[in-house]
Every structure is written in structure tokens, then in C-alpha cells.
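Recap from last week: sequence in, structure out.
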Amino acid sequence: MWKLTRNEEEDYFPSSPRKDWSIGLMKFVLALGILMMGVVLGLCLSSNFTHNFNSRTELFFPSTMYSMNCDKDSLSIKSFLGPTHLQHSMTDEELFWRASLVPHMEEYPFNRVPKVAFLFLTRGPLPFVPLWERFFKGHKGLYSIYVHTLPDYKLNVNDDSAFYGRQIPSEGVYWGSITLVDAEKRLLANALLDFSNERFVLLSESCVPIYNFPTIYEYLINSAHSFVDSYDADTKQGRGRYNRRMAPHIQLYQWRKGSEWFELKRELAVNIVADYNYYHIFRKYCKPSCYPDEHYIPTYLNMFHGVLNANRSITWVDWSRGGPHPARYGASSITVGFIKAIRNNGTFCMYNSRPSSICFLFARKFAPSALAPLMNLTSEVMGF
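Predicted C-alpha cells:
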């Protein structure tokens, strides 16, 4: 009898649909079982995985970035234009570098109201604070105050005083030494950090204003020149203090003498703070009986910026009694006539290339006892 082979049987009698369906069902159940096992395993490891994943992704996608206060932490033009407080940790070298940065754009990207910086150089107390506070009252935004004292001295004023918080980081100062110039440059540099400061006047604890604030402000802001006493004196106290080892950088004919109590416009203040070469020469060769505070700035300006200087001081002082120090006036000297005599002493000077009878804006030296009578005269004579 004829029989089919196995291969011929399969070809002739193909597998039934029911058998194919059973095999498909078994594969589906197997895949579903593997999937369920994966889900269970995933749930078991989920807490560990989430913790590790979050800890790593936090490095690249920190959640705190969405709650950052950008206005507080970002750099703004306001934070660059002037410090909110005067204390800092900069060295003199760092401070002078920072203060000598100058914008090259002529226009300011903000509404700049020029201010006068009042620089007080004192060893300790400022006895005329009440007088100055009356002088400044009502003119906020038009002036700045900076006080250089001995390093361990703390100015004792009320927190509503114009002088509150106005001490700068200071160093020791010794009469007749280069440390006086250091203190002057330190005051200038701290004041230059405020881009609104346009004029800079150096004052001592014995100085007082002899005009009201509007008069002094307009006089300084509108002046085309700075006011630094600078003259050639062929005397022992003038040319006699010149050290020939300063040549060739500083020649005898360039040597000048003048009052320490200067007034500078911003351009010259930056140049003085930025100068190291000529300052170093004075530091090395100008020692007693050469006094740097009487020669450094007058000589430097004469050499490089003479046309910008009025060659006179705006601080009145009485040297008529002779000696190394000027006359000092106490309570008994303070009268209406005395103050008027200082203001109208017959001196004529040049202001913006025109003759003027107003030559002095401040006066010194006054003893602390002069405060009370001066306070009684402010409204009658000085107009504040």
C-alpha cells in the first residue's frame, strides 16, 4: 500500500488554525508574565532609584534655581556707581587701582547730579559737627562726607547725623611725614568710588564754612579750575627743601610749595590717586625738613596740570603771627566783624578768568570753644 513520507504529509495536510492559535496564546502569556515580573521588580527598586536619580540630577538641574532672587543677586549699575557703605577690606594699592578706573564714554547712563565731597582729615573728634550739620541740612544728594581718623577711633555721632557711618578705613598719620599724603590719597580714592562726586575739598577738624551751602556748591561746581596753592618760593622753606636726588624726574625749577588744604575736580583727583612714580620719589627723598603734604600735590600739578589749577587756596588761614603753625581762634575772637573781615578782607582773585571778591569759602584754625559763638552767628553772617 502506498504511504506518504513525513514531509509529504506536512505539505499535504497543513497544521490546523486551532493549533496556531494555541501557540500564539502561550507566547502572549509568557510575555505578559515577564512584563509583570519587570513591573514588580521596578516597584521594589523605585524608592532607591528615585533617591539616587534625584541626588545626581540636582547637580545639573538644581530646584533652587527657580526660586532665585535675581534682582538681589545680579550685578546692577547701581551697585557699581557707589558703595552703600564705606567699610571695605581693600589695601591701599587695591583701593587706588579701583578708584582710578575711568569710563571713556562721555555720557552717563543714569541721571547724574554732581556732588561735592567733603574730606575731613582728623586725628580724633570733630568739634564742629553741629555747625556742619546745620550747613548741610536740606541739601541731601548734593554732597558726600568722608572722615579719616586714627585707626582705633570711632566717631561719636547720632545715627541721624550727616556724619554717621562716614568714617573710611584709616591708617596712622604722623605730622611732617609721607603718611599725610597717604591719608589724602586714601580720602580721595574712597570718594572717587562714588561716580557722582565731582569736586573734592580737604578739610581739618578746625575748619568751618564761611558761606552757606548753595553759595559754596555753585562756586565749586561751576568752576573751570581746581584750587591748590602752588608757588615757587626761593627760600629755605621753599626751594631749600628740594632734594637734588629727585632729578632728573623732578627739576628744581618745577619744585613748588603750597597749602595742604586743597580742592580738586574729579579729573585731577583721579590723576593724583593713580600716580605712583612721583609719589615714590617724594616718599624716598622728601623727609624732614621737607614736608610732603606741602610739596607733593603742588609740584605734581605744576608739572602736568598747571592750566587746570587756579594756584590759590579757598581756605583762609592767618600766618601773620609767624612760626610753624597758623593762628588759632577761640570763643573770644568770634564776632560778626571777625567773620565779615574774613569774607571781605580786601583780597581779589580770579574766578573763571574774571576778577572776584569771593576768594575764600572756608577758614581755619578754630578752637573747640569757638563752636557756641559760631552757632549764634550762622544765620546772621553766614546765611545758614
